[in-house]
Amino acid sequence: MEHPIKRLTILGSTGSIGENALRVVRAHQEKFALVGLSAHSNYQRLIEQAKEFHPVVVCIVDEQCAERVKDALSDTGIKMYAGRSGLLELAARDDANLMLNGLVGTPGMEPTITAIENGIDVALSNKESLVMAGDLINRLLDEHEVDLFPVDSEHSAIWQCLIGEEMSQVRRLILTGSGGPFRTTPREQFNQLTVEEALNHPNWKMGNKITIDSATMMNKGLEVIEAHWLFEIAPDAIDIVVHPQSIIHSMVEFVDGSVKAQLGVPDMKVPIQYALLYPEHAPADWERLDLASLGQLTFEEPDLEKFRSIALAYRSLEKGGSSPAVLNVANETAVYAFLDRKISFDQIPVLVEEAMENHEHIAHPSLEDLLELEEWTKSFISAKLNLA
Fold first, then answer.
1. Region for 260 from its dihedrals, namely left if φ exceeds 0, alpha if ψ lies in -120 to 50, beta otherwise
2. CATH code for the domain of 117
3. d(Cα 254, Cα 71) in Å, to the nearest integer?
4. Structure-derived torsion over alpha carbons of residues 103, 107, 112, 114, reported in degrees to the nearest 10
5. Does the model's pTM come out above 0.90?
6. DSSP state of 76
7. pLDDT, tens digit (0-9, with 9 covering 90-100), for 164-187
8. What's the domain range around 260?
9. Considering the domain boundaries, does residue 372 fall inside one?
């Protein structure tokens, strides 16, 4: 069966998700027409990508790099945007019918909303979009009759397990997590952990921010919130299990006790390709899963006292409203403070909890409310760091 060409924009094309997405495009060039690429400041890689893939437009968010991009592409016919406003203009281009949001962190939320409001389907890697604005995004998806396709390996796994099933027959979703680099590290040592140790993930190659989230296990907490909005299921029907081998990407348990799982090697190209080419499972020459060589697959309960971020995420989801947004921004700000060696590893959840407890709760935040909360939370954490 022939599927229509995907007219694709990739936000964050020079990052880990974006590079893997372009590997998918390279492998299936006949299935894609590339509308746009964006990068924050890696202008050299953006130029290389533009010359290889010839998109209609590129965007460099760091305006100090704009002239270099413009000069390098002057004879290509490729249009150029710059700055945050250029990124939002790229997200709004309706000559694309699919936008992959591979941006890292809170700045990815508004482009997701912009694309949906312009009738563009979204393949979403930026989990912060749903963590901060899940209620708003779901209302906009209905209003504009737009589809959202999950890219995270865990949510892609659940999505695949649910195809053909009725949500009324689902008992719970089971998100798997590797446990990160500190799964067996005693809690008493958390104040001594280094940035280098935290960035040494046992299974996945990811950007620095999400790798630290894996080390604190906040990534699982954020994924619980994301799963709640993606699959419209109650928070108490979403569980986490630690699975160090990262082979089972997540599971669905049904009311009759049967469980469906999605397995694969830990390679982001697989869920990215499925989101970009849905409903097609296209042939690919990626590494294959060799079941006979796996040995044991093991599972553990997460330690919620050691990994406090998980409990904070559940608490924010139960509180609802603006609470997950503050959790997200506070975590992001604290993670970068840790990467900059301004705080210790064990201070990350402490700062997140303080921000959650001190913000003025909003039951149904608008986009404007969320943008104001972002600034408030950053200022709150910065003040805490200056007092420390």
1. beta
2. 3.40.50.720
3. 57
4. -130
5. yes
6. T
7. 999 999 999 999 999 999 999 999
8. 155-266+293-387
9. yes
